[in-house]
């Protein structure tokens, strides 16, 4: 099947920065309400090693926390940190009532088992939403802390697509961080959901049936217009750094923005789409974590 392209983009550019700013404004109001009850939400961020991208991500998170009134604690360790020492640090944070959210920035050095670290964080302080208890609760539709990126994608879809009930959503990618929780959130929004992955047959044909298409595969510009149903909502989770012919680099998504914008109803850019919403949802999760711990303390 071929897709007929117009000569000019027809897709609405989904402004993640604008949506994130509105969410952060609401979060700041919730922080104020908690402070009136004597609770200052606090986020502890643990950074291990010298990964340049991780340092940038952490800096952005800490700056946003300050913006909305969330107290932040940054704990830095060198790349030789042992797993036992990191687990002991997490245990201390779990038992500190003044700390409401714990985020261990990934990736971790190879001597540390990431799964063990994720499991060690208290589920009510797991602001990434990666703990198995939160992952299972999400599948069952419970009120748990949800992974930030899928939550941000859902909020953008609801803002730009309205009621999602009955729509066919296709998620490309099945990671524990994005693909699987994204599918669960869409199911709870009453979508019919298809998940595509590296073993899927006729993937492009299946993707063309989607009213909502979410790409989270980590392959630069893999999804072009031939994968997209005219009028679909397209969310691009990918962040890939590619090299230009002159040796400089630029960020691109998993979606070929230029061609897909000729057929889609709306599409997220990279950067400026999902990324800002991910950080805004992290702040929202920190507030939720504080509220859950307040309820827990009240019995």
UniProtKB/TrEMBL annotation:
List UniProt keywords, sorted A-Z.
Amino-acid biosynthesis, Histidine biosynthesis, Hydrolase, Methionine biosynthesis, Multifunctional enzyme, NADP, One-carbon metabolism, Oxidoreductase, Purine biosynthesis
* GO MF, one annotated term: methenyltetrahydrofolate cyclohydrolase activity
Kindly tell me the pathway this chain contributes to. One-carbon metabolism; tetrahydrofolate interconversion
Q: Does the keyword Membrane apply?
A: no
Q: Which Gene3D superfamilies match?
A: Leucine Dehydrogenase, chain A, domain 1, NAD(P)-binding Rossmann-like Domain
Q: Which of this chain's residues are annotated to bind NADP(+)?
A: 173-175, 239
Tell me where in this chain the Tetrahydrofolate dehydrogenase/cyclohydrolase NAD(P)-binding domain is found. Answer: 147-292
Instruction: Give the Tetrahydrofolate dehydrogenase/cyclohydrolase catalytic domain ranges.
Output: 14-128
- The yes or no answer to whether the keyword Chaperone is present is no
What Pfam families is this protein classified in?
THF_DHG_CYH, THF_DHG_CYH_C
Q: State what this protein does.
A: Catalyzes the oxidation of 5,10-methylenetetrahydrofolate to 5,10-methenyltetrahydrofolate and then the hydrolysis of 5,10-methenyltetrahydrofolate to 10-formyltetrahydrofolate.
Its family remark reads:
Belongs to the tetrahydrofolate dehydrogenase/cyclohydrolase family.
- How is the subunit organization of this protein annotated in UniProt? Homodimer.
NCBIfam families per record? PRK14188.1 (NF010785)
Protein name stated in the entry: Bifunctional protein FolD
Q: Which organism is it from?
A: Candidatus Pantoea formicae
Which taxonomic lineage is given here? Bacteria, Pseudomonadati, Pseudomonadota, Gammaproteobacteria, Enterobacterales
């Amino acid at each position: 099947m071929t897709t007929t392209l117009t000569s000019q983009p027809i897709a609405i550019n989904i402004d993640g920065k604008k949506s994130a700013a509105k969410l952060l404004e609401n979060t700041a109001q919730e922080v104020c309400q908690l402070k009136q009850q004597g609770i200052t939400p606090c986020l502890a961020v643990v950074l291990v090693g010298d990964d340049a991208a991780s340092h940038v991500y952490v800096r952005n998170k800490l700056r946003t926390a300050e913006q909305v009134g969330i107290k932040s604690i940054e704990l830095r360790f060198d790349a030789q940190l042992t797993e036992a020492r990191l687990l002991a640090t997490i245990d201390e944070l779990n038992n500190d009532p003044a700390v409401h959210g714990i985020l261990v920035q990934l990736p971790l050095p190879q001597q540390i088992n990431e799964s063990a670290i994720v499991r060690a964080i208290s589920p009510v302080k797991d602001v990434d939403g990666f703990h198995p208890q939160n992952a299972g609760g999400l599948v069952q539709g419970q009120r748990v802390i949800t992974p930030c990126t899928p939550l941000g994608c859902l909020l953008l879809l609801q803002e730009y697509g309205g009621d999602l009930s009955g729509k066919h959503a296709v998620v490309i990618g099945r990671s524990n961080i994005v693909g699987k929780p994204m599918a669960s959130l869409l199911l709870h929004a009453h979508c019919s959901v298809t998940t595509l992955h590296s073993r899927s047959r006729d993937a492009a044909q299946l993707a063309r049936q989607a009213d909502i298409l979410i790409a989270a595969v980590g392959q630069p510009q893999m999804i072009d217009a031939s994968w997209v149903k005219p009028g679909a909502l397209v969310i691009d989770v990918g962040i890939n750094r590619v090299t230009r012919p002159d040796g400089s680099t630029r960020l691109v998504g998993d979606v070929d923005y230029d061609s897909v914008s000729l057929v889609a109803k709306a599409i997220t850019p990279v950067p400026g789409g999902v990324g800002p919403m991910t950080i805004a949802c992290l702040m929202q999760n920190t507030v939720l974590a504080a509220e859950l711990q307040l309820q827990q303390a009240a019995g």
